[in-house]
Amino acid sequence: MPTYSASETLDLDVGTRLASRTPSLLRALRGHFVGFAASLGWIAFGLSCLWREDIGDWTRTKEVAIAAFVFGGAIAIAAVAGFWSQRVGESLQRRSPWLLLLGVVLALWEVLTAKLGVLPLPFFPPPQAIVEVYTDDFVKLFDSVFASVKLQLGGYLIGAAAGFVTGVSIGWSRAVGYWVHPVLRFIGPLPATAWLPIAFFAFPSSWSASTFLIALATGFPVTVLTWSGVASVSNAYYDVARTLGAKPSFLVFKVAIPAALPHVFVGLFMGLGASFAVLVVAEMMGVKSGLGWYLQWAQGWAAYANMYAALLVMSLLCSGAITALFKVRDRLLVWQKGVVKW
Length: 342
What we know:
There is one protein chain. The chain is mainly α and 342 residues long. The chain folds into two domains: 6-120, no CATH class; 137-338, MetI-like (MetI-like fold, Orthogonal Bundle). Helices cover 80% and strands 0% of the residues. The protein has helices at residues 6-50, 61-81, 86-115, 127-136, 138-172, 174-187, 196-202, 206-231, 235-243, 248-285, 291-300, 304-332. The longest helix has 45 residues, at 6-50.
């Protein structure tokens, strides 16, 4: 074997360390490069707002341009800070591709609508028209959001609770399953919106009818997935608990329900999407407030900017609700982190 002096050994050790760190350094530099590119994308969006006069009368063009410049500068500062803070660098590296894409899309949207008019008005309003809705029609939009949140949250909680209790009952008791299962097979596959005429006839107000429809759309997937989860619990768990003297109530609350929680959360996620779909239809049909009503009002007046602004708010609400549900799931199912890959 060849022998090396102390200095040569030190040089080899340094070279080995640099070689091992090269891939991570290249990834970091690539992440910073994408971060600066995202900053340039937002600056390009700001420049597109000031490129030439708008073909329409929009009052928030300069404000949108300033906001784009500020946001692009903030991304650039974060990219520079990422050289010293690993946490900032990793966070920016994850988000930079989407930030870059969003800036480019907004710039193209601005040019094709407000500057060149390639996309016809009023069907394709520019970004500053959407911003005008949030600044000039804030009160009406906020009232609609508040009404929708109350209606959707009430119906979702009722449907989730009813579906959970029904699913546990069917999965645990054969007698309950015998009577409820056929009814579930008959009612469940029908879309909740098909019950609109009956709901508005049977309930005293459009609000209570809409709550029932949202609860119905939420309850079916929660019931089916909870039932499936309880029914799929291994008999070995029950046998061990019975051997230790467990009572039936212990088997239900301490064995069946915890083991079925992963299935329950799948049903809750499915019910959440279904509830938002029914919410819009219900508010369009009878409720005199809410985002569905706002969408119908905006469409009737051909106020497409208002309609797109309401759709964006609805998308953010649904995304926020899904994120909150994920947080709850992660806290309750923390024991699963060592079992399945998250």
